[in-house]
Structure formats: C-alpha cells, structure tokens
Amino acid sequence: MNELLERIPKGPLLYVFVGVIGLLAIATVLGAVLARVKPEKDFTELNARIRSWWLMAGVFMLAILLSRAVSLLFLAFLSFLALKEYLSLIPTRRADRGVLLWVYLAVPLQYLWVWIDWYGMFIIFIPVYMFILIPVRMVLHGQTEGFLRAAGTLHWGLMTTVFTLSHIAYLLQLPEKGGTAGASLVLFLVLVTQFNDVAQYTWGKLFGRHKVMPTVSPNKTYEGLLGGMATSFVLVYFLAPQLTPLTRNESFVAGFFLPLAGFLGDVSVSAIKRDIGVKDSGSSIPGHGGVLDRVNSLTFTAPLFFHFLRYLHF
Amino acid sequence: MSPKRLFFALVVRPFLLVVTGFNVRHAERLPKQGPALVVANHNSHLDTVALMSLFPARLLDRVRPVAAADYFLKSGPLAWFSRNLIGIIPVTRGGRGAGEDPLASISAALEAGSIVIFFPEGTRGEPERFKEMKSGIFHLSLRHPGVSIVPVFLHGLGKALPKGAFLPVPFFCDVFVGEPLERLGEKEAFLAGLKARLEALRAEGTFPEWN
After folding, report:
1. Beta-carbon separation of A88 and B171 below 8 A
2. Rounded-to-integer distance, Cα B61 and Cα B80, Å
3. Cβ count near A256 (within 10 Å)
4. CA-to-CA distance for A238 and A242, rounded, in angstroms?
5. Which of A97, A104, A272, A280 should one mutate to test binding to chain B, selecting the residue with the greatest count of B CBs within 10 A?
6. Measured between alpha carbons, how far is A145 from A157 in angstroms, rounded to an integer?
7. Distance from the A44 Cα atom to the nearest Cα atom in chain B, whole angstroms
8. Boundaries of every domain in chain A
9. Parallel, antiparallel, or unpaired: how do β-strands B115-118 and B36-40 relate?
10. Is the pLDDT of residue B63 over 90?
11. What is the per-residue DSSP string for A244-281?
C-alpha cells in the first residue's frame, strides 16, 4: 500500500493528471447538457466518445503509474491490437499465413529490445532485419503473384503500428533529466497528441468551412487545423518545460511541429482507409472506431518527438 | 459453476479476445432463450466457440453445437473435451441409410430448451467460401415449426484458423446476426432462401481480399 502511495505523482505530473480528469469531467457535463438542451440533435456518438475517453485515459494513466513493466506491456498490447487491426483491414494472401505469424512475432521482440534497453537493436530491428526477413520468408513458400504488394504492405504495417509506437515505450528508458522521468515524457507526448486531435476536431466542428484535404478526409478544414494547432501550441509551449527537458525555445519549435505531425499522421491513415474502402479501422472503441483510428496521430508524433528530444538532450 | 462455463471464462474468452476480437452487428437479434436454432456458415474450428462466446455466461450451459460424432468422439481426450467443455450434440453423418434418425439428438435438445448451433454446410470446406447447404436444417424446421432460426454470417475465422492449419493467426473477425427466418416454403426454396439471407448479411460488410 505504501509503495502505491509513493507512486502517486507529485509536482507537474500531478497537475496534469488532475487537469486531464478535470477536462474530461467538463466534457461529460457539457455532453449531458447538450443532449438535454437540444433533444432534437443526436449526441449519442459524442457521449460514447467521451465515455471511451474516460476509459482510455484511466487505463493509460494507471499503466504509467503502476510500473515500467506494466507500461511496456500495455504499449506492446496496443501495438499488437493496432497491427491486428491493420492486417485484418488490408488484402492479404492465403499463402502468407506463416509470414503473418513472423510479422506478429516482431511485436514482443521489439518491446523486448526496449525492456532490456538495447537501443541499437531497437532502432534497426524493424527497418533492417524485419525488412529482410519478410521477403525471405515469403520466397520460401514461392508464390510470386502479389509479392511486392504483400512485402510492401506488411512492412509498412510493422513500421506504423510497431516501430513508431514503440518509441513511446522507449521514452520510459531515457535517463532522468532535470527532474523529469520517462513517465512524464510519455504523458506529455500522449496528452499533447490526443489533445491536439480533440482541439482540431472541436475547432473544425465549430468554425470549419474551408476543406483542407477534400479527397482524403472531407471533415478536415483549415479552420480546424489552424485553430487546433494554435491551441495545442499554447499547451506545448507551457507544458513542455514542466514535463520534459526541452527549453523554452525548443518548446516553441515543438509547439509547431507536434500538432502538424499529429494532423499528418491522422490524414495518412485516413488515406489508407479510403484506399481500402472503409470508414473506421475497427469498432473496438465506442465512438472512436478502432484502435488504429485512435493512435494514427501518435504514429507520426511519437518518433518525431523522441528523436527531437534525444538529439537535443540525451 | 460448470466446467464448461469455467472453460469459457478462463480459456475461450481471453483467447478469442487476443486472437480474434469481434465486430458484432445486430447482437440484439441473438435468441435470449431456448429453444432456438442458430445457423451459420462454417470455415473454422473457431466458429463454434466464437458463436458460443456471444451468449452470456448464464445461458452458456444451454448453448450446444451440433457436431459430427465420427470426428469429435473418435478419440478419448477429444471426446471428453467435446462432451464436457463444449457440450456438443453428436450426430452421425450419413446415418440415414442405416435406418436411424440422424436428427433425433438435435430434436431432443431443442425439446429440452437448448439453443442449438448448427452449420448447414456440414463441414468447414474451403475457408471464406460458401458451400452447398445440406437439407438437415430444412427437416428440423419442419419438425419444430415453433423454434426460431437465426442466421449468422461469420467472416475472418477461416483466415485465423482454416481447415488443416495448426497455429491460429490473429485477425479481427466479423459476426453479422440476421433476423429470424420466416417460413421459406419447400426444401429447395428454404435452402436457397437461407443461403440468400447469409449472402445478404455478407453484403452488409466490406472485406479485404484473401486468396
């Protein structure tokens, strides 16, 4: 029990936790009030979305509080779910069943490199070794029809759902600096990325008029993008020096590129879904679609934030 | 708690959560009590446990899949597993020639109020392809006119664990539940109607190529 009490966050981390809970509470009240005041409009999806946010934020915050091992397991499972969703969405060849098992095996291995803090392997395992292993395993069964498409889509899936997302986990292994440990780096990255999604969505709903990428994502507007980016910029600019080793000037830069990267990750996954012909990547999270729909922005922000931070401070 | 319920709570449900995960459409159309027949297309050994796992734990002891006696009861451990942990209704394939009623065990189960899972195609066949329906389900519908027949379309389980495969490959799967069948007339019309219902359910989704 005492151990658990010691894990209760202090300082900036505590404020962030309280802030997140506060924001969700406000959203819940707003959702309920809207449904009451405007009964002619349907707010079921909005309210399902907010309820799912509670669950996701709760599970996530609990995982990073409990221990490094729990956080890693949680993130590995998240990667696995996103990969499973991706592989269920794309066309695959029957002959590649065995190949898919190797692709799945990359998930525990990649997170093992994180766990044992083997940075060199972590950073090349999927870009180099899996890049070679996938076609090698594929020539063994010998079906050449659709070879390039299979090799390409499988590796792209690993890069997106495992390689990039495992960067969130590697933040936990970065040594403590200036009183900010890995957990607060993870919290910062995930909070900013998800906040940015919500901010762009909200600005878009309220003021959106001019479509920014009509062929890819018809709901995305310049108003949503710019309004969301400006809001997220303020959050990053003030939060980064608290939760990360980034200086004021560096936070200024991060405030620009993180929200933009989140947007680009989001629309890239949208483009893939459009290519395949589905609206949501799945249905596991009520109101949000699938896991891939929720982590799409993170697939771009996680590696960019990690390497920005690592280059400047570690 | 029965061994079957324990087995589902501790093994089947966690396993399916990791390996498959279901996108269930129209779950409210599933029968809430027996007797009822649930008929589905058949691609994988996982089909049976997947359908069973859609029912709440308290109903599980009443949910019983029809399975071929020659396959599932041939060896001791498999027979024990099939009887105690799955609760199959064994039927003898091609038993009609021998002068016995091949559907007697199913009728008895329905009369006892079971929710019976039935695969009209008879075997798993080619994964993710429909096969001709056998007439057993038609005869059951004649014999038990008051029992509702709920068609269910399954997708993806044949990709996860097709016939002949040993290791399952994780895939998200789809389960689309249809409205109970109304009277569909004579044998040919009935079987064609059932097939059309499953095809209509399949048409509700978009599925990636797999071949």
Report:
1. yes
2. 16
3. 14
4. 7
5. A97
6. 20
7. 17
8. 2-313
9. parallel
10. yes
11. SS--HHHHHHHHHHHHHHHHHHHHHHHHHHHHHT-SSS
d(CA B73, CA B67): 9
Q: How far is A48 from A286, CA to CA, in rounded Å? A: 6
Q: Name the DSSP class of B88.
A: -
Question: Which candidate from A80, A90, A283 shows the least CB-CB separation from B208?
Answer: A90
Q: Is residue B210 part of a domain?
A: no
Q: What is the CATH number of the domain that holds B193?
A: 3.40.1130.10
pLDDT at A35 over 60: yes
In chain B, the number of structural domains is 1
CB B197 within 8 A of CB B180: no
Is residue B12 domain-resident?
Answer: yes
Does some domain include residue B188? yes
Q: Which of B18, B167, B210 sits opposite A92 (nearest CB)?
A: B210
Strand ranges (E), chain B? 22-25, 36-40, 63-68, 89-91, 115-118, 148-155, 173-177
Contact (CB, 8 A) for A156 and A219: no
pLDDT computed for residue B46 by the predictor: 94
Residue B95: predicted pLDDT? 57
* Cβ neighbours, 10 Å, residue A71: 22
From chain A, pick out residues whose CB is under 8 angstroms from the CB of B156: 88
Residue B211 lies in a domain: no
Interchain pair B165, A282: CB under 8 A: no
Token pair, residue A260, equals 């933009």
Domain that holds residue B7: 3-202
SS3 A216: coil
Contact: A104, B170; criterion CB under 8 Å: yes
Name the minimum distance, in Å, from the CA of B175 to any CA of chain A: 12
In degrees, to the nearest 5, what angle opens at C-alpha A243 toward C-alphas A237 and A245?
85
b/e string for B147-177 if b means 16 or more Cβ within 10 A? bebbbbbbbbbbbbbbeebeebbbbbbbbbb
- How far apart are the C-alpha atoms of B55 and B53, rounded to whole Å? 5
Q: Please count the residues of chain B.
A: 211
CA of B26 vs chain A CAs: smallest distance (Å): 13
From chain B, the residues in CB contact with A275 under 8 A are none
Question: What residues form DSSP beta bridges with B117?
Answer: B38, B65
Encode pLDDT of A220-279 as tens digits: 999 999 999 999 999 999 999 988 999 999 999 999 999 999 999 999 998 988 888 877
Position A47: which residue type?
N
Q: Mean pLDDT for chain A?
A: 89
